[in-house]
Specification:
A five-stranded mixed β-sheet has the order 5-6-7-2-10, with helices on one face. Strands 1-4-3 form a three-stranded antiparallel β-sheet, with no helix packed on it. By secondary structure, it is α+β, with helices and mostly antiparallel strands. The protein has 15 helices and ten strands. The chain starts with 13 loop residues before the first helix and ends with a strand. A hairpin with a 4-residue loop joins β6 and β7. It is globular.
Length: 503
């Protein structure tokens, strides 16, 4: 028997829940039933986060953790119907989580000018600090670099598209001030497109030139203080072939924004006269409104983390060629890294996803468990903290999914591999830990530059030690998936992706 709807709000219907889930996993509604397992449908953590946010915006006080632990959509429906009504921000009896809900009719006023500086978001601040030369293992910029090979890309048309893209997205014109704030420039600091004409070069010289360009772009550190956050270059090759070089600093945008950027660039190149959907608000607006909405949620999460500080593990104690906290670790010879990767074919990826669904673990938990197992094999202690990225774009305001900016955060996950057990058991434990920490990850939702607002767990492990540690400059190495179509027509094959971060 289903639960009665909680007093103070309307009932959420069965058909409505099933339609929402079907849309999230992109399958026909007829294929989604109440006895379906969300994991077997292919619903991942991000999908659950987005559905939770949508239902909370509608006044249903349901948590990510509640839905993630439910075995069927029928259980989801019972949880949703039994959930208490959420009180809009500013209403009576506002609790820690109710106060974080958006008030869609009343947005915070903003009397600032377009070029007024505003605070960096949490991960932006981390990237900015971590790239400084005087930081442990510093001197390295966090950025995405992609190369796309194709034919017939016109330099002038591409330049016009890039110019329009920078006008549309202000975070492609941002610079970081020396006081840790950011400012939007009226004009970009770099040319629209740098053209490298290699058509007349001998084959050997051309290959060497392309290798030099790849080495330059993959190991560069853009000058974000001067507004260098987005760079586009085009190599012209014989037989009308081209190579497009795209470099995006993570101070300006996260991995999901790279997809927005590529999709918009393709549209602006292919259909220069066709308008893109209106965004109507800015990344600055998003940060301000998000901070206001989540004040109580951040306070609640901070208290949750504070109660657990004494029991948290230390960072992995890994062997290093240099003490990461010594000044020597920032020497240029440690700036260069070697990219190691392993590619799964579509068929093997399908097998991995099917096995994960069968055992009710998410792909995220599987990869995190594999990562933890590798670290444990090298760490002096088998119990340690992992610092994992969290993509947390709040879609409560329409068109937020069209913005470019840094919407990422990170969560600390305590991993204990001190005893022998099956990999599946480790993955399930990690999944349970991820659910708990994701649900309380709001301490990093917004932060000013002083240490007074840095999460206590970060300050605890930022003190000098002999091992690498998560700190206010902890980073993610997530690389956007990128689709072949998300580029100007003709640049259809992505040949290299590099996500370089401060280490």
């Amino acid at each position: 028997m289903s639960e009665a709807p909680a007093p103070g709000r309307a009932e959420l219907g069965e058909a409505e829940v099933l339609r929402a889930v079907a849309a999230a996993v992109d399958v026909p509604s007829a294929e989604v039933t109440l006895d379906a397992d969300p994991f077997e449908l292919g619903l991942d953590s991000l999908g659950i986060i987005r559905l939770t946010a949508d239902w909370r915006r509608r006044g249903i006080k349901v948590s990510y953790e509640q839905l993630a632990e439910a075995a069927t959509l029928g259980e989801w429906l019972s949880v949703l119907r039994a959930a208490p009504a959420a009180v809009p921000q500013g209403g009576a009896d506002t609790g820690p989580e109710e106060a974080s809900l958006p008030a869609t009719e009343a947005q915070p006023s903003d009397d600032t000018a377009p070029d007024d500086p505003f605070p960096l978001a949490a991960m932006q601040h981390a990237y900015w600090i971590g790239r400084q030369d005087d930081q442990p293992l510093g001197g390295v910029g966090a950025h995405f670099y992609a190369e796309l090979d194709g034919t017939g890309v016109d330099p002038e048309r591409l330049a016009a598209a890039v110019t329009a893209l920078r006008r549309r997205h202000e975070m492609l014109r941002v610079r970081v001030l020396d006081d840790g704030r950011q400012q939007i420039l009226a004009e970009p600091a770099q040319p629209a497109v740098t053209v490298h004409d290699l058509r007349q070069e001998p084959a050997g010289s051309r290959t060497e030139a392309l290798d030099r360009l790849r080495d330059h772009y993959t190991h560069r550190r853009m000058d974000v203080e001067q507004g260098e956050v987005f760079d586009v270059a085009l190599s012209l090759l014989p037989d009308d072939r081209t190579r497009l070089h795209i470099d995006l600093d993570m101070v300006g945008a996260d991995a999901a924004s790279m997809r927005v950027l590529l999709a918009d660039l393709q549209r602006l190149y292919d259909e220069p006269g066709s308008p893109l959907p209106d965004i109507a608000h800015s990344y600055r607006d998003y940060l301000r409104e998000n901070q206001e909405r989540r004040k109580a949620e951040v306070a609640s999460a901070r208290a949750w983390w504070h109660d657990r500080l004494d029991g948290l593990s230390a960072p992995p104690q890994l062997p290093t060629v240099v003490d990461p906290l010594s000044p020597e670790s920032a020497a240029p010879r440690y700036h260069r890294t070697t990219r190691l990767h392993h590619h799964l074919t579509a068929a093997r990826k399908g097998v991995l996803l099917e096995r994960a669904r069968r055992h009710r673990v998410t792909p995220t938990a599987v990869l995190a468990a594999a990562f933890a197992e590798v670290l444990a094999s090298w760490s002096a202690e088998p119990r340690f903290l992992l610092n994992l990225p969290l993509f947390d774009r709040d879609l409560s305001r329409p068109a937020t999914d069209l913005l470019i900016g840094d919407f990422s955060s990170s969560v600390l996950l305590d991993v204990d591999l001190s005893r022998e057990r099956a990999f599946l058991d480790s993955a399930r434990d990690i999944q349970a830990g991820l659910r708990r920490t994701i649900a309380r990850g709001r301490t990093r939702a917004s932060r000013s530059c002083g240490t007074s607002r840095v999460p206590p767990a970060v300050r605890l492990y930022s003190r000098p030690s002999s091992t690498p540690a998560p700190s206010a400059s902890a980073r993610s190495t997530t690389v956007p998936s990128g689709r072949p179509s998300a580029s100007p027509r003709g640049s259809s094959r992505k040949v290299r992706r590099c996500g370089w971060t401060p280490r």
